[in-house]
Amino acid sequence: MKSKRYARADKDVCAACGACMDECPRGAIEILQGCYASVNEAMCLGCGKCAAICPAGAIEIMDREG
Ligand code: SF4
Ligand code: SF4
Questions:
Q1: Domain map (residue ranges) of the chain
Q2: Arithmetic mean of pLDDT over the chain
């Protein structure tokens, strides 16, 4: 069953520090082109650990639709 929530990273705010990637228990985050974090929504548990550790406040926890 899918989690009800997922993380979304704002690439315009992300500083590409990699902290969220290291923190994610699912390995759902990668840094694309060395420039910004991207969350694989299908793998994300919505636990919020990435959002909590992000120094830039670039990650928001969203509700899944449906
Ligand atoms: S909410 Fe949790 S599972 Fe989802 S990307 Fe962030 S740390 Fe990973
Ligand atoms: S912790 Fe925040 S600033 Fe750092 S890579 Fe992740 S989203 Fe970007």
A1: 5-63
A2: 96
